[in-house]
Amino acid sequence: MPMTTRETPAPGGRRGVPVAPDPLPIAVVDNHTHLDIARDGEAAPDVAHAIAAATAVGVDRLVQIGCDLPGARFTVEMVERHPAMLGGVALHPNEVPRLAETGGLQDAYDEIERLAAHPRVRVIGETGLDYYRTGPDGVGAQQESFRWHIDLAKRTGKALQIHDRDAHDDVLGILAQEGAPEKTVLHCFSGDLAMARECAERGFYLSFAGTVTFKNARGLRDALSVTPLERVLVETDAPYLTPAPWRGATNAPYLVPLTVRAMAGVLGVAVPTLCQAVSDTSEAVYGPW
Asked: Which CATH superfamily is domain 28-286 in?
């Protein structure tokens, strides 16, 4: 992605190419990104370029998430090639009902488990529940898949990254029933203040994306404000959820500093303090790069 274009983002559009923000004073981790995904017919990102652009602004480590079989295979290939990347593999909750309908779910589980054994795959995820895109007929398959991934994370000793869309109560309920892995991350946290407090009490980690910078996200900022600093992570979820002022453009790891600086303001801490905390917590959750 070129870094020199200085277009302003079109309102509601995606034509603007965001300018690289000022570098962070201490390097951090993009806790969740999808460098295998191209948006709206765009070319897939050049992974080496994406890593270099991120490193230049103080985002020197990435967690690449593959959430279907092609993405999981890509993830293993990339983490072998790029020392700045660790990986996560799983079947996204929206992928599971389709696999169940075609009879391919068990074979997909088997392959995910094989890929998860790679030593640089440190995450089982993203898994969880998504009631926004999947109708009632898919709920049972999603819930069973979530339980399977929880078990895999515990058996492998790897962190669990959870996708939760319009399913807060069921996500927390299933984690309570199954017993959450020691390292459980709510990716792209979307809950309210009460949920953030409950997650912190349970020892979960909350990862915040560019959504926390949106003008209409006061409730999300309230949730962040009560999250203990040692439980806070940051992510892009690229190519989606681009932080302000570039909302609507294609996201990439080099834009993490925009989210970090907004988060520091909400938490009432200095930017270097938040950066150090995010870096330390990321390595506590995922291990050294």
From this structure: Metal-dependent hydrolases (3.20.20.140)
